[in-house]
Fold these 2 entries.
Entry 1:
Amino acid sequence: MAANTYLTGIKPTGEFHLGNYVGAIKPALAAAREYDTYYFVADYHALNTVKDAAELRHSIRSGAATWLACGLDPERTVVYQQSKVPETFELTTILSALTPKGLMNRAHAYKAARDRNTAAGNSDLDAGINMGLYNYPILMAADILVMEGTHVPVGRDQSQHIEYTADIAGYFNHRFGEGYSFPVPKGVIDEGDGSILPGTDGRKMSKSYDNHIPLFLPENKLKKAIRRIPTDSTPVEDPKDADGSVPFQLLAHFADADKVADVRRRLEAGGMGWGELKNELFEAVNAELGPKRERYDQLMDDPSEIDAILEAGSARARERARATIDRVRAAVGVA
Ligand code: ADP
Ligand code: TRP
């Protein structure tokens, strides 16, 4: 069997924030230095919600540019665009023929959409739900299986999708295993809460809570966003609860260990105000992200480089997908 393949997709539906950077981008970059990695922009998944061509085009490039600016090496990692690998959609059709409808009925995202209709008093529980949302888990299974992905780094909210992928691979292998078997993938989910970054209101930083700080804010806006993080009214000279404050928790992810220890000591001893802490936080975030932001802006100003990287990566991804689909076609009897 092939060596381990780490594969993950990002849905281009909005701008990245500091939480995505700490919880998803940095671990993905670390994995890319160690394993065989396939990272793609899940543009057809995004189409379910993004219905504006210019916006989708921008988000696809912005997603790829974010990874590249953060240091992903497209020679080592296959960086590609989902829609440019049509074998994925052929596999979606094949997998659909094996997947029970009941499995889709039980999917969290679909159930949540129906619950919203119930809560709104809508008698049609499927109102506003498109088939793309309903079939989302099958497309995601096809993304993974077509590349013979074995390890899938994702956020905890995606774990059901990985379980479904394993189930769907199982249905196929059970039926057609004599001709071809998919490797059954595993999710790589960071269970430690240590990597959950708080948002400005102290809850998990998330686009859906509107408490996020975008990753590539211009310097002056970043400074303002950090200044606006709420803190209590403990006077400068009083001792403070470092771990209970959002700016300190953020600092712990961006500054080096010595700096973090020094700031902690000064906060806990009294004499360091929240304003000074925020200055330290700004300096640390800006030092880490400044050069990446410059690279990001440069890539977005002339997207031809991103487009060329996605094109080349998608050609490499297709080669691998083609090899899988040829064997799958033979196994099911259409070739
Ligand atoms: P959002 O909650 O803003 O919609 P996503 O669900 O799109 O974010 O998350 C994409 C990736 O970023 C996932 O792998 C997720 O685990 C990670 N992530 C999102 N928010 C945070 C956070 N606050 N701290 C750590 N990781 C996060
Ligand atoms: N559903 C994932 C998300 O919303 C994105 C995604 C699509 C994905 N296909 C994938 C992730 C395949 C991992 C593997 O975050």
Note: DSSP finds 13 helices and five strands in the chain.
Entry 2:
Amino acid sequence: MPLKDRMLNDLWYKNAIVYCLSVGTFMDANGDGVGDFQGLLRRLDYLQGLGVTTIWLMPFQPSPGRDNGYDISDYYNVDPKYGTLGDFSEFTHACRERGLRVMIDLVVNHTSDQHPWFREARSDPDSQYRDWYVWSDKQPPNAKDGVVFPGVQKSTWTFDKQAKRWYFHRFYEFQPDLNTANPYVRAELLKIMGFWIQLGVSGFRMDAVPFVIATKGPKVREPVEQYDMLREFREFLQWRQGDAIILAEANVLPDTDLEYFGDEGERLQMMFNFQLNQNTFYALATGDTAPLKKALTATRPRPATAQWGVFLRNHDELDLGRLTPEQREAVFAAFAPEPDMQLYERGIRRRLAPMLAGDRRRLELAYSLMLTLPGTPVFRYGDEIGMGDDLRLPERECARTPMQWSTEPEGGFTKHAKPPCRVITGGAYGFERVNVASQRRDPNSFLNWMERMIRMRREVPEISWGDFDVLRTSRSDVLALRFDWRNNSVLCLHNFGAEACTVKFRSGCNEPGQNRLINLLSDEHSEEQDDGRHAVVLEPYGYRWYRVGGLDYLLRRSEI
Ligand code: GLC
């Protein structure tokens, strides 16, 4: 094996299973109604049993909490609601004991307006912190442009009475943007990374990356991304800890992907694949897989060390802004027909299970797909049991309710009688019906299905590491992908149609006698027909995972 290939084996994030959670809504150990690190500690064996390899924690630092913690007022601490730095290091230690990696959110595009840096910057013109933010003497002409939360956020510049000047905020007005052109700000940003690395984290989910690296200021009409900054972050991280990574939140067009990864993989290791995400939902809504196939091809180019983060839903709205208006309307019509289910003129705020009407066949299709798209799957807590949402809560809060553990009051999340964030109660998605304890006892539950799928996914590294081909098939509502890696091939079929169908295709394997497809999830294998093609009958929303060629992966592994 070439030396470079051997070194690639070290990239832990390539074949990881990421699970995102917020400490505050996962498990409350001290009964005050808010989840905490001690509670999370007690649930680590559950996560390990599920097959998760990496936990991504949403912001847990001190914060006024006006944007779910994405408004940080102290980068070097734990919000007392969740515990102490001591609890955090207990947590990372317990993760390490179990071979689990920890990633945390890195929110450095902006601070809270309550951060001491901003308080000093606004009150003292001579403070060194004044230039850590972005100011203007007059209201900039484009102050109404570029808001991220249309309908809720009015502008990107706000007048500050104390400073008697305007400050820039890409997001809400209580989130003043940091001036990342200032080298002291960038040095601080590295210090923040270094601090958490020292406490045992393996990487960062970097928030709002295109905005972090954009030029900012009253004269900036079209922000320009300063991609070299990414290399600076990456180099620092790797000097401190060789295997630490950055996973970028960057909803960008495919032609800039390589700017983020770097042509040689010298910038960020991972990015969320928003193209696949949006086109997956279009395919789920309409059965038309053509745009998804296009997105797969468009996001194919990437350096060998880079990896996509593949996800379905996250803590934000499902952003459909990159679809055409007609495509977006089709997804709205299928999954968010009520205006109240939509958000920010571009997205859907619901959780996945209610979007798919709780239909087990469609849920399995969606997660089977997520597990077999090129990249590393990223779950959101509660996905594994099909949790729902509470649309009475404002904006994105509806999909951030506490984890449903059991049929005990408040779903076993807390002993507190009236926690500030209430568990979903009653109805099809209430904790009485949807919870971990009940599903654990039922071998056919969604939870146990998910656990089996995750286990199999870990045993199919071709998906994470390999090259892929979108196969031609006889049907437009079926996606057929083949992954090739080190003389092994895996082939996955997904039927987005509501009808059963027979799909015909060539596996692409030309070795005589090797064109058998071994089903990885059941005993039903597929032999090639006389014309060299396969003909597989798929149920409505059916899916298959096959190994091509009949030889067991482990037998072929001798090369490794
Ligand atoms: C990111 C987060 C989102 C947050 C925003 C501002 O987009 O995912 O939740 O509101 O950044 O920090």
Note: The CA atoms of residues 396 and 491 lie 36 Å apart.
